[in-house]
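Dig into what follows:
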Amino acid sequence: MAFDIEMIKKVYANFGPRVEAARKLVGRPLTLSEKILYAHLWDGNTNTAYTRGTDYVDFAPDRVAMQDATAQMALLQFMQAGRPKVAVPSTVHCDHLITAKNGAEIDLPAANTESKEVFDFLASVSNKYGIGFWKPGAGIIHQVVLENYAFPGGMMIGTDSHTVNAGGLGMVAIGVGGADACDVMAGLPWELKFPKLIGIKLTGKLSGWVSAKDVILKVAGILTVKGGTGAIVEYFGEGATSMSCTGKGTICNMGAEIGATTSTFGYDESMERYLRATGRAEVADAANAIKEHLTGDAEVYAEPEKYFDQLIEINLSELEPYLNGPFTPDLATPISKMKEVAAANGWPMKIDVGLIGSCTNSSYEDISRAISIAKQVSEKGLTSKSEYCINPGSEQIRYTIARDGFLDVFKSIGAKVFTNACGPCIGMWDRVGADKQEKNTIVHSFNRNFAKRADGNPNTFAFVGSPELVTALAIAGDLSFNPLTDTLTNDKGEQVKLDAPTGFELPTKGFAVEDAGYQQPAEDGSKVEVIVSPTSHRLQLLDPFTPWEGTDLKGLKLLIKAKGKCTTDHISMAGPWLKFRGHLDNISNNMLIGAVNYFNDKTDSVKNELTGEYGPVPATQRAYKAAGLGSIVIGDENYGEGSSREHAAMEPRHLGVRAVLVKSFARIHETNLKKQGMLGLTFVNKEDYDKILEDDTIDIIGLTTFTPNVPLTLVLNHADGTKEEISVNHSYNDQQIEWFKAGGALNIIRREAAAKKA
């Protein structure tokens, strides 16, 4: 079934003319990314040639996707927007609030009971406002989107950083905060700084143990966690066209780990095959009719150095499997070097658990390649040494692999099959023994491996690899095992070597499913009532944030000076805190509890300037708020890296933090701060980070003349009576300054909606 086919046909009808106009305007051949961007300009006109990395541009995305953890806040905001129905096709996917522990048969009913209030809220809001609703157990948002909604040349935003997965089907799909989603659902333009372009030319062909996952693991090692910031990564070349559509999705998915705005591939035969296999022949036919526009111009790929801001070339024929980690997804180690690198670093060699699946690697191809390794356990007389767990990406995948006997093979090696949901990947893993915080190693085919990410244990060393490599390592139980060269001892005492993985791009019998888990919204939702109990601890209706008072901000207390890596996991943890994603006050009790305090190297321990005592970050900030005092947060490089969760911006806003000053921001988090009426600032001189002392009281000067491209001044009032002034930059344009003055972008939407009703 092809969802929203009329919308797709409309996009394609305009696509060619807009691309031709854009090409004429800029006076040169266009990359695929540029074609999609220019084809989705808000006003539909291409009368301006935009400057990459400089110009803010208004776009008109084709659709919005939300997962249940972030959808709550997005839809609570949308309910205040005064609109009767979403303006673009939108969906909600229940995948984050399901704890993985005993297996799907037990875990899914438990989640439906524990989070019934939230699921009912999301279902009713979706029904009321014309939003497609995917029930708990239907699958992980990005796999479900790839199977049902993604289409070549489209533009989508989603309230999850791995929305970029849809680039595997030739989209420009971008992770955003809920406020951005609210704007688009309300029929407003979506603003983005016109991205820079990184081209990655793939030559050769994947073979043996090497998979698409290894491409992005190598790229992460090259670009690091912030090397893609502000850029779209566009893959091309013979290596790209030789790869499966779902393999492309894996590569795009983990583009979030290099900070990229998104990643994408040109439309090709693999995408056509996937569209037809997933019941969307009509979309494939429509794409074929304009396929010359759905990839970069030939001149671009012939001389890419002329058209991209940065160019990387990878020969797939020379690539080897990688394991990335621990504690960061860009620490890339070829499997051939892992033994010596692990020994040199003292990483635990014994592998306790191998986990496959997730939004990154749960395609039929992924599972079939892992199965080809798992089968060898019985065939070669081996015993699997590690616990092994699977998170299928969707009910369609689960049903199909069950039909084809794959689940039986997995269970024969002791595998535990979790719900079709995020589970351990998002920290929803009730892992027995994790509370002991023992040092241990796990390997998984997920995307992120920050400390505490999977099981809450800071001493879990997590390594990221392909599903087939994870399976081999789980069988061996040893991080130093290299399946390309090493042997294992079987039950006869023989040395046996694992054969290289094989698999199927698509199921030979086709995909199958009985109940995909989709709920279509009511044609007329005006009579649908959405109820939020005032005593609920899971949901809380939002109150508007207070507008700017019109003066410079003086007397701000230093809440915390965060040291080193400070991701959105550090600012607003997931795991057990996911249950409070719809209740701003309750979830604010996790604000910055994972950040390391520069002054004592501790987490969740900051000095309360009112008492002189050290205490938890949220409690200290609540004390400042009760005393009518604002505060400021200081951060290091790439602050806000990771998830798109806007709670990392809303919690400080709610508790009275007025500004966040850092060496550099991750893109989504900086935007989220702006949307909520916060000040997101960067040091002009990064060395000034060292000037900020624990007992400082800080003034921000220049807000009464707040202007784009004009730095502000910070006055550091030291406890000894001395003062220092430092300059700080901002990236606010005129519209974003209005968000700040109004107390948040939503206040402007609400005001405009009220004016129209009047």
About this structure: The mean pLDDT is 96. The two ends are 42 Å apart (CA to CA). The longest strand covers residues 553-561.
